[in-house]
């Protein structure tokens, strides 16, 4: 996967948004947790109470006004890529765009991989919040981010996505995000 290219593209999008609030990191951590949760929701494998635990990988969207052809979309891949946008954004916010992670499937199950990602985001948020009071621990943040990025890529692998699929979906979603900015989304 060409993570350098994805980081550059994400950085261009960040510059376009140009949000300068002091709470940007805090909001980025929350956005990442939300997107991880939305990805888990489309995966559905944790829903032990439901008979429908199959991942949402093909959903038909009819054409607008029923004119022309509809299309099939992969909601799981779309949500995964939304999370990847957030992972990259957090890394850029923290100044870690130089990291080139490996794909790590840290856990034997997808459920545990999701839970580990939530854990990592929580730890990173806590370390970031305490950065002025605990400089020694703040130096661990880069290692946590490297784990987060690697584990997120590992999740994509566990969900059955190829790096080519992920890159293509990322590029498509990036175009949508730019279009949304043009229309004051």
UniProtKB/TrEMBL annotation:
- UniProt signal peptide: none
Cross-referenced Gene3D superfamilies: Type II deoxyuridine triphosphatase
Q: Which domain of life is it from?
A: Bacteria
Which InterPro entries does the record match to this protein? dUTPase/dCTP_pyrophosphatase, UCP030140
What's the protein here called?
Answer: dUTPase
């Amino acid at each position: 996967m060409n993570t350098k290219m994805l980081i550059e593209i994400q950085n261009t999008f960040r510059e376009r948004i140009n949000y300068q609030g002091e709470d940007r990191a805090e909001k980025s951590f929350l956005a990442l947790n939300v997107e991880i949760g939305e990805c888990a929701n489309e995966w559905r494998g944790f829903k032990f109470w439901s008979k429908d635990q199959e991942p949402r990988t093909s959903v038909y969207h009819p054409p607008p006004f029923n004119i022309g052809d509809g299309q099939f979309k992969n909601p799981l891949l779309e949500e995964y890529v939304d999370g990847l946008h957030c992972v990259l954004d957090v890394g850029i916010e923290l100044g870690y765009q130089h990291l080139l992670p490996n794909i790590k499937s840290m856990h034997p199950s997808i459920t545990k991989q999701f839970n580990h990602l939530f854990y990592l985001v929580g730890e990173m948020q806590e370390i970031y919040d305490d950065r002025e009071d605990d400089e020694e621990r703040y130096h661990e943040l880069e290692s946590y981010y490297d784990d987060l990025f690697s584990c997120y890529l590992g999740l994509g692998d566990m969900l059955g996505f190829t790096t080519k699929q992920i890159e293509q979906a990322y590029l498509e979603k990036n175009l949508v995000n730019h279009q949304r900015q043009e229309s004051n989304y």
